[in-house]
Amino acid sequence: MSRVGSGGAGAPDGPGTAGGARATGGAGATGGAGATLRQLLVASRPVSWVNTAYPFAAAYVMATREVDARLVVGTLFFLIPYNLLMYGINDVFDYESDLANPRKGGVEGALLDRRLHRTTLLAAVLLPVPFVAYLVAVGSPVSWAVLAFSLFAVVAYSAPRLRFKERPVLDSLTSSTHFVSPALYGLVLAGEPIGRGAWIILAAFFVWGGASQAFGAVQDVVPDRAGGIASVATVLGARTTVRLAIASYLAAGLLLLAVPWPGPLASVLVLPYAALAWPYRSVPDADAALANRGWRRFLGVNYVVGFLVTQLLIWSALA
């Protein structure tokens, strides 16, 4: 499994999506094209690339048992352009609130120089175009619809007027869609029927994603409220949100018990996430920032769990 949200109102910067570096020194303006490219790279969250590319590639390969051009292009698309679109838009339109967020400019999110905003938006919009054009050309109407929905969710999360990240509950659902939709797209692009087991896995992944975004939003309850930013955590409160996240993690595990063997073994993999959130189940709103400790551990857990999921997929493919 992969990451979801942190940063004001559960913004999509967080464990498993880290990789930001503070870029407020004008590097893009004074350092030439090389510096600009480095900042665009930072904005795309390299540590997060795997969280969107892996679900697509795993789903596609498990459905087709093939390595072909669609797999390569799709994986490259969800590796870099998709993430630059998601996080580039986020970094530009969250700039003012990010200035006041001490977690930005380090492992938990980029802080782009204002002079790079236009360049970032242009790159974020234009880089995906050739990839999307190819995927549309080789896809079906159903795959077009799934891809369009995925891209809409990416843009709607942070773009002005839509700003789904500031609509409580919808913030968690949209953030989870960012990571589940590539997997669904991989299955649809493969052109094979989607079985009951695959739908259950997607549902469990979605529940897990919503839980992770909600837990990530807890640490920002105080600054979000001070800035007038709404999130699932500011509405429900820190302790209720943490308890909801824990319950959702466990619910995702229960869903996985219903998939064909060896899938049920994956149900155990939700326990580390529930364990990370457990110490903060009674955290008061005033001390919600303490949840950042658990959130930071999320990154390491993600990679370990991702490795174990891969072993299960290999086992399943060979069974």
Report on this model:
This protein is mostly helical and 319 residues long. The protein has a single domain (22-318), classed as Orthogonal Bundle (Farnesyl Diphosphate Synthase), CATH 1.10.600. It is 65% helix and 1% strand. It is built from 16 helices and 2 strands. The chain has helices spanning 27-30, 32-43, 49-64, 69-79, 81-93, 95-99, 117-126, 128-138, 141-158, 170-190, 196-218, 221-226, 232-236, 238-256, 271-277, 292-318, and strands spanning 22-23, 111-112. A two-stranded parallel ribbon has the order 1-2. It is globular, with a radius of gyration of 19 Å. The two termini are 22 Å apart.
CATH topology: Farnesyl Diphosphate Synthase
**Known CATH architecture:** Orthogonal Bundle
Count of distinct structural domains: 1
Mean pLDDT: 86
Structural classification: mainly alpha
Q: What percent of residues adopt helix (DSSP H or I)?
A: 55-70%
Number-wise, the strands total 2
Question: Rg from C-alpha positions?
Answer: 19 Å
* CA-based shape: globular
Low-pLDDT parts are: 5-30
Q: What is the beta-strand fraction? A: under 5%
End-to-end distance: 22 Å
